[in-house]
Amino acid sequence: MSALILIMGDQLSFDIAALKAGSKETDVVLLAELRDEASYVQHHKKKIAFLFSAMRHFAKALSEAGWKVDYVKLDDKNNTHHFTGEAERALSRHQLSRVITTHPSEYRVLQMLKDWQSRADFPVEIQDDNRFYCSPEEFAVWAEGRKQLRMEFFYRELRRKTGILMQDDKPIGGQWNYDSDNRKPPDSSVPIPAATHFEIDDITAEVCKLVEIEFAHHYGDLEPFFFAVTHAQAEQVLNQFIAERLAHFGTYQDAMRTGEPFMFHSHIGFYLNCGLLSPMQAVDAAHEAYNKGLAPLNSVEGFIRQILGWREFVRGLYWLKMPEYKALNFLQAERDLPEFFWTSQTDMNCLHQCFSETQRHAYAHHIQRLMVIGNFSLLAGLSPEAVSHWYLCVYADAYEWVELPNVSGMVLFADGGILASKPYAAGSAYIDRMSDYCSGCKYSPKEKNGDRACPFGYLYWDFLGRHEDKLRTNPRLGMIYRSWDKMSDEKKQQITTQSRAFLEKITPS
Ligand code: FAD
Ligand code: DLZ
Ligand code: SF4
Protein backbone atom coordinates (compact mmCIF):
# COMPACT_ATOMS: atom_id res chain seq x y z
CA MET A 1 0.00 0.00 0.00
CA SER A 2 1.41 3.42 -0.97
CA ALA A 3 2.45 5.72 1.85
CA LEU A 4 3.04 9.31 2.77
CA ILE A 5 6.62 9.71 3.93
CA LEU A 6 6.83 12.57 6.41
CA ILE A 7 10.26 14.18 6.65
CA MET A 8 10.64 16.71 9.47
CA GLY A 9 12.92 19.72 9.29
CA ASP A 10 15.74 18.02 11.17
CA GLN A 11 15.58 14.81 9.14
CA LEU A 12 17.14 16.05 5.91
CA SER A 13 19.24 12.96 5.16
CA PHE A 14 19.12 10.95 1.94
CA ASP A 15 19.44 7.71 3.90
CA ILE A 16 16.95 8.61 6.64
CA ALA A 17 15.06 5.52 7.82
CA ALA A 18 11.64 6.65 6.53
CA LEU A 19 12.99 7.00 2.98
CA LYS A 20 14.73 3.63 3.23
CA ALA A 21 11.45 2.05 4.28
CA GLY A 22 9.51 3.71 1.47
CA SER A 23 9.35 3.35 -2.28
CA LYS A 24 10.27 5.91 -4.92
CA GLU A 25 7.80 4.31 -7.30
CA THR A 26 4.67 4.53 -5.18
CA ASP A 27 5.11 6.86 -2.20
CA VAL A 28 4.88 10.61 -1.73
CA VAL A 29 7.37 12.55 0.40
CA LEU A 30 5.98 15.43 2.47
CA LEU A 31 8.00 18.37 3.80
CA ALA A 32 6.22 21.38 5.29
CA GLU A 33 7.22 24.81 6.55
CA LEU A 34 5.16 25.20 9.71
CA ARG A 35 4.53 28.24 11.84
CA ASP A 36 4.05 26.01 14.89
CA GLU A 37 7.55 24.55 14.52
CA ALA A 38 9.13 27.90 13.74
CA SER A 39 7.58 29.59 16.74
CA TYR A 40 6.84 27.09 19.54
CA VAL A 41 9.79 29.03 20.82
CA GLN A 42 10.76 32.16 18.93
CA HIS A 43 13.73 30.69 17.09
CA HIS A 44 16.54 32.96 15.88
CA LYS A 45 15.69 34.34 12.43
CA LYS A 46 18.85 32.81 10.99
CA LYS A 47 17.91 29.37 12.27
CA ILE A 48 14.51 29.53 10.55
CA ALA A 49 15.98 30.82 7.28
CA PHE A 50 18.70 28.17 7.40
CA LEU A 51 16.25 25.32 7.99
CA PHE A 52 13.71 26.49 5.42
CA SER A 53 16.44 26.88 2.82
CA ALA A 54 17.94 23.48 3.66
CA MET A 55 14.45 21.92 3.48
CA ARG A 56 13.76 23.49 0.08
CA HIS A 57 17.14 22.37 -1.28
CA PHE A 58 16.59 18.88 0.07
CA ALA A 59 13.12 18.66 -1.48
CA LYS A 60 14.60 19.71 -4.81
CA ALA A 61 17.36 17.12 -4.54
CA LEU A 62 14.85 14.38 -3.70
CA SER A 63 12.75 15.31 -6.73
CA GLU A 64 15.83 15.21 -8.93
CA ALA A 65 16.59 11.77 -7.52
CA GLY A 66 13.18 10.56 -8.67
CA TRP A 67 11.03 10.90 -5.55
CA LYS A 68 7.56 12.39 -5.77
CA VAL A 69 7.78 15.31 -3.36
CA ASP A 70 5.00 17.46 -1.94
CA TYR A 71 6.48 20.61 -0.42
CA VAL A 72 4.20 22.96 1.53
CA LYS A 73 5.57 26.49 1.81
CA LEU A 74 4.93 28.77 4.76
CA ASP A 75 2.83 31.15 2.69
CA ASP A 76 0.63 28.42 1.16
CA LYS A 77 -2.83 29.77 1.99
CA ASN A 78 -4.14 26.34 3.02
CA ASN A 79 -1.17 25.57 5.30
CA THR A 80 -2.49 24.52 8.73
CA HIS A 81 0.97 25.15 10.21
CA HIS A 82 1.18 21.96 12.21
CA PHE A 83 2.37 18.42 11.44
CA THR A 84 -1.02 16.83 12.10
CA GLY A 85 -2.95 19.17 9.82
CA GLU A 86 -0.40 18.89 7.02
CA ALA A 87 -0.21 15.11 7.21
CA GLU A 88 -4.01 14.90 7.13
CA ARG A 89 -4.25 17.26 4.16
CA ALA A 90 -1.54 15.40 2.25
CA LEU A 91 -3.12 11.98 2.91
CA SER A 92 -6.35 13.29 1.47
CA ARG A 93 -4.67 15.15 -1.44
CA HIS A 94 -2.81 12.04 -2.58
CA GLN A 95 -5.49 9.56 -1.52
CA LEU A 96 -3.15 7.71 0.78
CA SER A 97 -4.04 6.04 4.03
CA ARG A 98 -0.81 5.49 5.94
CA VAL A 99 2.23 7.48 7.04
CA ILE A 100 5.86 6.44 7.37
CA THR A 101 8.13 8.66 9.37
CA THR A 102 11.36 8.54 11.35
CA HIS A 103 11.48 8.69 15.15
CA PRO A 104 11.39 12.42 15.93
CA SER A 105 14.17 14.06 17.85
CA GLU A 106 11.89 15.63 20.45
CA TYR A 107 9.63 14.16 23.10
CA ARG A 108 6.83 16.61 22.32
CA VAL A 109 6.67 15.42 18.70
CA LEU A 110 6.80 11.76 19.70
CA GLN A 111 3.71 12.34 21.84
CA MET A 112 2.01 13.80 18.78
CA LEU A 113 2.89 10.72 16.69
CA LYS A 114 1.61 8.43 19.45
CA ASP A 115 -1.62 10.37 19.30
CA TRP A 116 -1.83 9.65 15.57
CA GLN A 117 -1.21 5.97 16.27
CA SER A 118 -4.18 5.90 18.61
CA ARG A 119 -6.47 7.04 15.79
CA ALA A 120 -8.00 4.41 13.51
CA ASP A 121 -7.84 6.71 10.47
CA PHE A 122 -4.13 7.47 10.83
CA PRO A 123 -1.86 4.42 10.62
CA VAL A 124 1.67 5.60 11.17
CA GLU A 125 4.88 3.62 11.09
CA ILE A 126 7.74 5.15 13.10
CA GLN A 127 11.14 4.00 11.92
CA ASP A 128 14.12 4.14 14.30
CA ASP A 129 16.42 7.08 13.67
CA ASN A 130 19.46 5.49 12.05
CA ARG A 131 21.71 8.55 12.33
CA PHE A 132 23.24 7.80 15.74
CA TYR A 133 25.82 5.33 17.00
CA CYS A 134 23.69 4.32 19.97
CA SER A 135 19.93 3.80 20.12
CA PRO A 136 17.89 4.95 23.13
CA GLU A 137 17.30 1.26 23.92
CA GLU A 138 21.04 0.48 23.95
CA PHE A 139 21.64 3.50 26.14
CA ALA A 140 18.97 2.35 28.59
CA VAL A 141 20.70 -1.05 28.83
CA TRP A 142 24.04 0.67 29.50
CA ALA A 143 22.46 2.93 32.14
CA GLU A 144 20.58 0.15 33.92
CA GLY A 145 21.74 -0.31 37.50
CA ARG A 146 24.38 2.46 37.38
CA LYS A 147 24.29 4.88 40.28
CA GLN A 148 25.80 7.66 38.20
CA LEU A 149 25.76 8.16 34.45
CA ARG A 150 29.10 9.53 33.34
CA MET A 151 29.91 10.41 29.75
CA GLU A 152 33.49 9.19 30.05
CA PHE A 153 32.48 5.56 30.74
CA PHE A 154 29.77 5.58 28.10
CA TYR A 155 32.26 6.99 25.60
CA ARG A 156 34.75 4.22 26.33
CA GLU A 157 32.02 1.66 25.68
CA LEU A 158 31.30 3.24 22.31
CA ARG A 159 35.00 3.38 21.46
CA ARG A 160 35.19 -0.36 22.17
CA LYS A 161 32.00 -1.08 20.26
CA THR A 162 32.99 0.89 17.16
CA GLY A 163 36.76 0.32 17.25
CA ILE A 164 37.27 4.06 16.72
CA LEU A 165 40.74 5.19 17.87
CA MET A 166 41.36 1.67 19.18
CA GLN A 167 44.19 -0.77 18.68
CA ASP A 168 43.99 -4.32 20.03
CA ASP A 169 41.20 -3.39 22.41
CA LYS A 170 43.27 -0.52 23.84
CA PRO A 171 42.86 3.21 23.19
CA ILE A 172 45.34 4.48 20.63
CA GLY A 173 48.12 6.40 22.39
CA GLY A 174 47.43 4.62 25.68
CA GLN A 175 44.90 7.13 27.07
CA TRP A 176 41.17 7.42 26.55
CA ASN A 177 41.09 11.16 26.96
CA TYR A 178 43.59 13.94 26.25
CA ASP A 179 41.68 16.82 27.84
CA SER A 180 44.61 17.79 30.05
CA ASP A 181 46.46 18.84 26.84
CA ASN A 182 43.48 20.87 25.67
CA ARG A 183 43.42 23.95 27.85
CA LYS A 184 45.74 26.46 26.21
CA PRO A 185 44.75 30.12 26.34
CA PRO A 186 44.33 31.96 23.03
CA ASP A 187 47.53 32.82 21.23
CA SER A 188 47.32 35.83 18.92
CA SER A 189 50.36 34.58 16.98
CA VAL A 190 48.39 31.53 15.79
CA PRO A 191 46.17 32.70 12.89
CA ILE A 192 42.55 31.52 12.92
CA PRO A 193 41.31 30.44 9.48
CA ALA A 194 38.21 32.22 8.20
CA ALA A 195 34.94 30.30 8.58
CA THR A 196 33.64 28.69 5.41
CA HIS A 197 31.22 31.12 3.73
CA PHE A 198 28.69 30.51 0.96
CA GLU A 199 27.01 33.01 -1.33
CA ILE A 200 23.24 33.31 -0.97
CA ASP A 201 21.47 31.61 -3.88
CA ASP A 202 17.92 32.30 -5.15
CA ILE A 203 16.31 29.82 -2.76
CA THR A 204 18.01 31.29 0.29
CA ALA A 205 17.30 34.85 -0.87
CA GLU A 206 13.58 34.06 -1.16
CA VAL A 207 13.51 32.40 2.23
CA CYS A 208 15.37 35.28 3.90
CA LYS A 209 12.81 37.71 2.51
CA LEU A 210 10.00 35.52 3.88
CA VAL A 211 11.61 35.25 7.32
CA GLU A 212 12.31 38.98 7.53
CA ILE A 213 8.60 39.66 7.03
CA GLU A 214 6.94 36.73 8.80
CA PHE A 215 9.29 36.45 11.77
CA ALA A 216 10.28 40.12 12.11
CA HIS A 217 9.66 40.04 15.86
CA HIS A 218 12.00 37.07 16.42
CA TYR A 219 15.47 37.44 17.94
CA GLY A 220 18.67 37.71 15.94
CA ASP A 221 20.26 39.03 12.75
CA LEU A 222 19.56 37.46 9.36
CA GLU A 223 22.66 39.01 7.87
CA PRO A 224 25.36 38.05 7.29
CA PHE A 225 23.99 34.70 6.08
CA PHE A 226 26.75 32.35 5.01
CA PHE A 227 25.63 28.92 6.25
CA ALA A 228 25.74 25.80 4.11
CA VAL A 229 22.25 24.83 2.94
CA THR A 230 23.00 21.67 0.94
CA HIS A 231 24.74 18.38 1.70
CA ALA A 232 27.61 19.23 -0.62
CA GLN A 233 28.18 22.59 1.06
CA ALA A 234 28.00 21.07 4.55
CA GLU A 235 30.58 18.52 3.47
CA GLN A 236 32.77 21.38 2.29
CA VAL A 237 32.55 22.96 5.77
CA LEU A 238 33.57 19.65 7.31
CA ASN A 239 36.45 19.16 4.87
CA GLN A 240 37.71 22.67 5.41
CA PHE A 241 37.57 22.16 9.18
CA ILE A 242 39.57 18.94 8.87
CA ALA A 243 42.15 20.57 6.62
CA GLU A 244 42.50 23.94 8.36
CA ARG A 245 41.31 23.81 11.97
CA LEU A 246 41.32 20.27 13.36
CA ALA A 247 45.04 20.27 14.12
CA HIS A 248 44.53 23.12 16.62
CA PHE A 249 41.03 22.09 17.75
CA GLY A 250 42.17 20.32 20.91
CA THR A 251 44.82 22.75 22.04
CA TYR A 252 42.57 25.83 21.75
CA GLN A 253 39.24 24.15 22.48
CA ASP A 254 38.57 26.35 25.52
CA ALA A 255 40.09 29.56 24.16
CA MET A 256 38.04 32.69 23.42
CA ARG A 257 39.13 35.74 21.45
CA THR A 258 37.24 38.95 20.76
CA GLY A 259 35.81 38.99 17.24
CA GLU A 260 36.56 35.29 16.64
CA PRO A 261 33.29 33.41 17.24
CA PHE A 262 34.34 30.22 15.50
CA MET A 263 37.95 29.92 16.76
CA PHE A 264 39.20 26.41 15.88
CA HIS A 265 35.76 24.84 16.28
CA SER A 266 34.10 22.98 13.45
CA HIS A 267 30.75 24.87 13.27
CA ILE A 268 29.08 21.73 11.94
CA GLY A 269 26.51 21.32 14.74
CA PHE A 270 23.83 23.00 12.58
CA TYR A 271 24.40 20.44 9.84
CA LEU A 272 24.71 17.36 12.05
CA ASN A 273 21.48 18.17 13.84
CA CYS A 274 19.33 18.66 10.75
CA GLY A 275 20.82 15.83 8.70
CA LEU A 276 23.00 17.64 6.15
CA LEU A 277 25.96 15.80 7.69
CA SER A 278 26.07 12.53 9.58
CA PRO A 279 28.08 12.04 12.79
CA MET A 280 29.77 9.06 11.12
CA GLN A 281 31.00 11.29 8.28
CA ALA A 282 32.53 13.73 10.77
CA VAL A 283 34.11 11.07 13.00
CA ASP A 284 35.49 9.13 10.01
CA ALA A 285 36.96 12.27 8.47
CA ALA A 286 38.77 13.15 11.71
CA HIS A 287 40.00 9.58 12.11
CA GLU A 288 41.33 9.57 8.57
CA ALA A 289 43.15 12.86 9.20
CA TYR A 290 44.82 11.24 12.21
CA ASN A 291 45.81 8.16 10.20
CA LYS A 292 47.35 10.40 7.56
CA GLY A 293 49.29 12.34 10.19
CA LEU A 294 47.42 15.58 9.45
CA ALA A 295 46.33 16.25 13.04
CA PRO A 296 47.66 15.25 16.48
CA LEU A 297 45.89 12.78 18.74
CA ASN A 298 44.82 15.33 21.39
CA SER A 299 42.85 17.23 18.74
CA VAL A 300 41.42 14.21 16.95
CA GLU A 301 40.42 12.42 20.16
CA GLY A 302 38.98 15.67 21.56
CA PHE A 303 36.85 16.25 18.47
CA ILE A 304 35.70 12.63 18.21
CA ARG A 305 34.79 12.64 21.92
CA GLN A 306 32.43 15.58 21.37
CA ILE A 307 30.50 13.63 18.77
CA LEU A 308 30.87 9.98 19.73
CA GLY A 309 30.85 10.80 23.44
CA TRP A 310 28.91 13.92 24.37
CA ARG A 311 26.44 14.06 21.50
CA GLU A 312 25.42 10.42 21.86
CA PHE A 313 25.44 10.61 25.65
CA VAL A 314 23.10 13.61 25.93
CA ARG A 315 20.69 12.03 23.46
CA GLY A 316 20.61 8.78 25.43
CA LEU A 317 20.05 10.72 28.64
CA TYR A 318 17.27 12.80 27.08
CA TRP A 319 15.25 9.78 26.01
CA LEU A 320 15.96 7.94 29.26
CA LYS A 321 14.82 10.77 31.52
CA MET A 322 12.09 12.62 29.62
CA PRO A 323 9.56 13.99 30.39
CA GLU A 324 10.53 14.34 34.09
CA TYR A 325 13.96 15.76 33.21
CA LYS A 326 12.50 19.01 31.91
CA ALA A 327 10.88 19.89 35.24
CA LEU A 328 13.95 19.31 37.44
CA ASN A 329 15.18 22.26 39.48
CA PHE A 330 17.50 20.82 42.13
CA LEU A 331 18.83 24.21 43.24
CA GLN A 332 15.37 25.80 43.16
CA ALA A 333 16.62 28.62 40.97
CA GLU A 334 13.76 30.97 40.14
CA ARG A 335 15.22 34.24 38.86
CA ASP A 336 13.99 35.58 35.52
CA LEU A 337 16.36 36.20 32.64
CA PRO A 338 17.91 39.67 32.65
CA GLU A 339 16.96 41.75 29.62
CA PHE A 340 20.57 41.76 28.37
CA PHE A 341 20.30 38.09 27.33
CA TRP A 342 18.22 39.46 24.45
CA THR A 343 19.80 42.88 23.91
CA SER A 344 23.49 42.04 24.59
CA GLN A 345 23.71 45.37 26.46
CA THR A 346 25.75 44.70 29.57
CA ASP A 347 28.95 46.13 31.02
CA MET A 348 30.25 42.61 31.60
CA ASN A 349 32.40 42.37 28.49
CA CYS A 350 32.60 38.57 28.36
CA LEU A 351 28.81 38.31 28.35
CA HIS A 352 28.50 41.22 25.94
CA GLN A 353 30.86 39.54 23.44
CA CYS A 354 29.16 36.13 23.67
CA PHE A 355 25.65 37.58 23.42
CA SER A 356 26.61 39.80 20.47
CA GLU A 357 28.09 36.86 18.57
CA THR A 358 25.03 34.76 19.36
CA GLN A 359 22.73 37.49 18.06
CA ARG A 360 24.75 37.89 14.87
CA HIS A 361 25.54 34.27 14.00
CA ALA A 362 23.06 32.10 15.94
CA TYR A 363 26.28 30.48 17.17
CA ALA A 364 28.64 30.56 20.13
CA HIS A 365 31.21 27.89 20.77
CA HIS A 366 31.03 25.46 23.64
CA ILE A 367 33.10 27.33 26.22
CA GLN A 368 31.21 30.55 25.59
CA ARG A 369 27.93 28.64 26.14
CA LEU A 370 29.28 26.79 29.18
CA MET A 371 31.78 28.94 31.04
CA VAL A 372 30.53 32.42 30.23
CA ILE A 373 26.76 32.47 29.64
CA GLY A 374 26.08 29.17 31.40
CA ASN A 375 28.29 29.90 34.39
CA PHE A 376 26.67 33.31 34.79
CA SER A 377 23.19 31.72 34.65
CA LEU A 378 24.16 29.22 37.32
CA LEU A 379 25.73 31.75 39.68
CA ALA A 380 22.89 34.24 39.24
CA GLY A 381 20.30 31.57 40.06
CA LEU A 382 18.37 31.94 36.79
CA SER A 383 15.44 29.59 36.39
CA PRO A 384 16.17 26.44 34.36
CA GLU A 385 12.99 26.91 32.39
CA ALA A 386 13.91 30.46 31.36
CA VAL A 387 17.51 29.58 30.53
CA SER A 388 16.53 26.51 28.56
CA HIS A 389 13.99 28.50 26.60
CA TRP A 390 16.67 31.07 25.74
CA TYR A 391 19.23 28.50 24.53
CA LEU A 392 16.59 26.79 22.41
CA CYS A 393 15.67 30.10 20.77
CA VAL A 394 19.05 31.53 20.00
CA TYR A 395 21.29 28.80 18.53
CA ALA A 396 20.85 27.44 15.03
CA ASP A 397 21.90 23.97 16.21
CA ALA A 398 19.46 23.96 19.14
CA TYR A 399 16.94 21.14 19.49
CA GLU A 400 15.54 20.13 22.83
CA TRP A 401 17.19 16.68 22.86
CA VAL A 402 20.66 18.22 22.88
CA GLU A 403 19.98 21.63 24.42
CA LEU A 404 18.10 20.45 27.54
CA PRO A 405 20.69 18.05 29.01
CA ASN A 406 23.42 20.61 28.34
CA VAL A 407 21.51 23.43 30.00
CA SER A 408 19.75 21.61 32.76
CA GLY A 409 22.43 19.02 33.51
CA MET A 410 25.78 20.44 32.48
CA VAL A 411 25.26 24.13 33.14
CA LEU A 412 22.62 24.57 35.85
CA PHE A 413 23.00 21.34 37.85
CA ALA A 414 19.19 21.35 37.83
CA ASP A 415 19.21 17.55 37.60
CA GLY A 416 21.13 17.31 40.88
CA GLY A 417 24.04 15.41 39.35
CA ILE A 418 22.54 12.98 36.84
CA LEU A 419 24.79 14.33 34.07
CA ALA A 420 27.67 16.04 35.88
CA SER A 421 29.42 15.14 39.11
CA LYS A 422 29.44 18.77 40.28
CA PRO A 423 28.25 22.19 39.12
CA TYR A 424 30.60 23.85 36.61
CA ALA A 425 30.71 26.97 38.82
CA ALA A 426 33.71 29.24 38.40
CA GLY A 427 34.82 32.74 39.29
CA SER A 428 36.48 35.18 36.92
CA ALA A 429 39.93 33.52 36.83
CA TYR A 430 39.00 31.00 34.13
CA ILE A 431 37.53 33.61 31.79
CA ASP A 432 40.53 35.87 32.41
CA ARG A 433 42.96 33.07 31.59
CA MET A 434 41.13 31.65 28.57
CA SER A 435 40.09 34.89 26.86
CA ASP A 436 41.08 38.46 26.12
CA TYR A 437 37.68 39.72 27.31
CA CYS A 438 38.75 41.11 30.70
CA SER A 439 41.18 43.64 29.25
CA GLY A 440 38.25 45.38 27.53
CA CYS A 441 35.91 45.29 30.50
CA LYS A 442 34.63 47.94 32.89
CA TYR A 443 35.20 45.39 35.66
CA SER A 444 38.45 43.83 36.77
CA PRO A 445 38.97 40.21 37.76
CA LYS A 446 41.63 41.39 40.20
CA GLU A 447 39.31 43.70 42.18
CA LYS A 448 37.29 42.00 44.91
CA ASN A 449 35.39 45.01 46.29
CA GLY A 450 33.88 48.21 45.02
CA ASP A 451 32.37 49.24 41.70
CA ARG A 452 35.08 47.65 39.60
CA ALA A 453 34.93 44.21 41.23
CA CYS A 454 34.11 41.53 38.66
CA PRO A 455 30.62 40.16 39.46
CA PHE A 456 31.79 36.60 38.75
CA GLY A 457 34.12 36.93 41.78
CA TYR A 458 31.47 37.60 44.43
CA LEU A 459 28.63 35.72 42.70
CA TYR A 460 30.74 32.56 42.79
CA TRP A 461 31.13 32.63 46.58
CA ASP A 462 27.56 33.76 47.07
CA PHE A 463 26.39 30.76 45.01
CA LEU A 464 28.41 28.36 47.18
CA GLY A 465 27.13 29.99 50.36
CA ARG A 466 23.53 29.99 49.14
CA HIS A 467 23.60 26.28 48.29
CA GLU A 468 25.78 25.04 51.10
CA ASP A 469 23.07 22.65 52.34
CA LYS A 470 22.94 20.87 48.98
CA LEU A 471 26.55 21.10 47.80
CA ARG A 472 28.83 20.86 50.82
CA THR A 473 28.67 17.07 50.88
CA ASN A 474 29.75 16.83 47.23
CA PRO A 475 33.23 15.26 47.45
CA ARG A 476 34.49 17.36 44.51
CA LEU A 477 33.62 20.58 46.33
CA GLY A 478 35.21 19.71 49.68
CA MET A 479 38.34 21.82 49.17
CA ILE A 480 36.35 24.85 48.04
CA TYR A 481 34.11 24.69 51.09
CA ARG A 482 37.23 24.53 53.26
CA SER A 483 38.27 27.90 51.78
CA TRP A 484 34.75 29.21 52.36
CA ASP A 485 34.97 28.12 56.00
CA LYS A 486 38.18 30.09 56.44
CA MET A 487 36.52 33.31 55.31
CA SER A 488 35.54 35.79 58.00
CA ASP A 489 31.87 36.48 58.68
CA GLU A 490 32.45 40.07 57.67
CA LYS A 491 33.83 38.99 54.30
CA LYS A 492 30.92 36.61 53.77
CA GLN A 493 28.47 39.38 54.61
CA GLN A 494 30.18 41.68 52.14
CA ILE A 495 29.85 39.02 49.40
CA THR A 496 26.17 38.57 50.14
CA THR A 497 25.50 42.32 50.11
CA GLN A 498 27.38 42.86 46.83
CA SER A 499 25.63 39.91 45.20
CA ARG A 500 22.14 40.92 46.32
CA ALA A 501 22.67 44.47 45.03
CA PHE A 502 23.96 43.20 41.67
CA LEU A 503 21.17 40.66 41.19
CA GLU A 504 18.49 43.17 42.17
CA LYS A 505 19.90 45.55 39.55
CA ILE A 506 19.82 43.02 36.68
CA THR A 507 16.38 41.56 37.44
CA PRO A 508 14.49 43.88 39.77
CA SER A 509 11.98 42.01 41.91
P1 FAD B 1 32.59 21.68 17.98
O1 FAD B 1 33.17 22.27 19.20
O2 FAD B 1 33.38 21.76 16.75
O3 FAD B 1 32.26 20.15 18.32
C1 FAD B 1 31.92 19.22 17.30
C2 FAD B 1 30.54 18.65 17.51
O4 FAD B 1 30.50 17.90 18.72
C3 FAD B 1 29.41 19.66 17.65
O5 FAD B 1 28.98 20.12 16.39
C4 FAD B 1 28.36 18.83 18.37
O6 FAD B 1 27.61 18.06 17.46
C5 FAD B 1 29.18 17.90 19.23
N1 FAD B 1 29.20 18.40 20.61
C6 FAD B 1 30.17 19.12 21.21
N2 FAD B 1 29.86 19.33 22.50
C7 FAD B 1 28.67 18.77 22.70
C8 FAD B 1 27.80 18.66 23.84
N3 FAD B 1 28.11 19.19 25.01
N4 FAD B 1 26.63 18.04 23.68
C9 FAD B 1 26.28 17.49 22.50
N5 FAD B 1 27.06 17.56 21.39
C10 FAD B 1 28.24 18.17 21.51
N6 FAD B 1 24.87 21.52 20.98
C11 FAD B 1 23.93 21.36 20.06
O7 FAD B 1 24.16 20.69 19.06
N7 FAD B 1 22.70 21.91 20.21
C12 FAD B 1 22.38 22.64 21.30
O8 FAD B 1 21.26 23.11 21.42
C13 FAD B 1 23.38 22.84 22.29
N8 FAD B 1 23.12 23.58 23.40
C14 FAD B 1 24.10 23.73 24.33
C15 FAD B 1 23.81 24.48 25.48
C16 FAD B 1 24.78 24.63 26.44
C17 FAD B 1 24.45 25.38 27.70
C18 FAD B 1 26.05 24.05 26.28
C19 FAD B 1 27.09 24.22 27.33
C20 FAD B 1 26.34 23.33 25.16
C21 FAD B 1 25.38 23.16 24.18
N9 FAD B 1 25.64 22.41 23.02
C22 FAD B 1 24.65 22.24 22.09
C23 FAD B 1 26.92 21.71 22.85
C24 FAD B 1 28.00 22.51 22.11
O9 FAD B 1 28.19 23.74 22.73
C25 FAD B 1 27.67 22.70 20.64
O10 FAD B 1 27.38 21.45 20.07
C26 FAD B 1 28.83 23.32 19.89
O11 FAD B 1 29.15 24.55 20.45
C27 FAD B 1 28.48 23.48 18.42
O12 FAD B 1 29.52 24.12 17.76
P2 FAD B 1 30.51 23.34 16.79
O13 FAD B 1 29.72 22.63 15.78
O14 FAD B 1 31.53 24.33 16.33
O15 FAD B 1 31.13 22.28 17.78
C1 DLZ C 1 13.15 23.81 14.04
C2 DLZ C 1 12.16 23.71 12.91
C3 DLZ C 1 11.67 24.87 12.32
C4 DLZ C 1 12.15 26.22 12.71
N1 DLZ C 1 10.76 24.80 11.33
C5 DLZ C 1 10.33 23.60 10.90
C6 DLZ C 1 9.35 23.49 9.88
O1 DLZ C 1 8.84 24.47 9.38
N2 DLZ C 1 9.00 22.25 9.47
C7 DLZ C 1 9.51 21.13 10.01
O2 DLZ C 1 9.17 20.02 9.57
N3 DLZ C 1 10.42 21.21 10.99
C8 DLZ C 1 10.84 22.40 11.45
N4 DLZ C 1 11.74 22.49 12.45
C9 DLZ C 1 12.28 21.24 13.01
C10 DLZ C 1 11.26 20.59 13.94
O3 DLZ C 1 10.99 21.44 15.03
C11 DLZ C 1 11.82 19.26 14.40
O4 DLZ C 1 11.89 18.43 13.30
C12 DLZ C 1 10.95 18.65 15.43
O5 DLZ C 1 11.24 19.23 16.64
C13 DLZ C 1 11.13 17.15 15.47
O6 DLZ C 1 11.43 16.68 16.68
FE1 SF4 D 1 33.79 39.03 32.41
FE2 SF4 D 1 34.60 39.78 34.83
FE3 SF4 D 1 36.35 39.57 32.87
FE4 SF4 D 1 34.55 41.54 32.84
S1 SF4 D 1 36.19 41.23 34.32
S2 SF4 D 1 35.14 40.25 31.10
S3 SF4 D 1 32.81 40.53 33.74
S4 SF4 D 1 35.19 37.90 33.76
Question: What is the gist of this entry?
Answer:
The chain is mainly α and 509 residues long. It has helices spanning 17-21, 35-39, 45-64, 83-93, 107-117, 136-143, 151-162, 202-214, 231-244, 246-249, 269-274, 279-291, 297-321, 340-343, 349-361, 366-379, 384-394, 400-411, 429-434, 455-466, 468-471, 478-486, 489-506, and strands at 4-6, 28-32, 68-72, 99-102, 124-127, 166-167, 170-171.
- The spatial strand order of the largest sheet comes to 3-2-1-4-5
Mean pLDDT equals 96
The chain-level structural class is mainly alpha
Oligomeric state of the chains in view: single chain
CATH class category label of the largest domain: Mainly Alpha
Quantity of strands, as a count: 7
Low-confidence stretches: none
Note the beta-strand portion. Answer: under 5%
The CATH topology of the largest domain is given as DNA Cyclobutane Dipyrimidine Photolyase, subunit A, domain 3
Radius of gyration, in Å, reads: 24 Å
